[in-house]
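Re: the 117-residue chain
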Amino acid sequence: MLEMTREEFEELVSLALDRVPPELMRLMDNVAVFVEEEPEDPQDRELLGLYEGTPLTERGEWYAGVLPDRITIYRGPTLRMCETREDVVAETEITVVHEIAHHFGIDDERLHALGYG
C-alpha cells in the first residue's frame, strides 16, 4: 500500500476542493467535508467517498435548521487502490467532484457517463 500521512492526504483533499470552480462552491449550501481513515461498514472497504444529506435539488420549504450535509473522503481505500502519488492526486480530485455532484443532485449513472465514476 502506498504510504502517505493523514496530513498529506488532507492537503490533497483541500487542493481538490480549491480546484472546484468558485461559482459552484458559492452554490454549495450547508455541507461539510471530512477525511476519515476507513468507512464504518467493513463491507465498504473499497468506498472512496460518501455523501450524506439532502441534495440541493430535493430541498424545499421544510429545509431549515438541519445539520450540514456531510461529504467524507476515505484515506485507506484511496491509498490501497492507487500505485503512485500522482494516482492519489487524480483519484482524490475525482472523488471530491463525485461527492460534490451528489450534493447538487447528480446521480451515479450520470457521473459514470461523465467520467467521475
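The chain has a mean pLDDT of 94.
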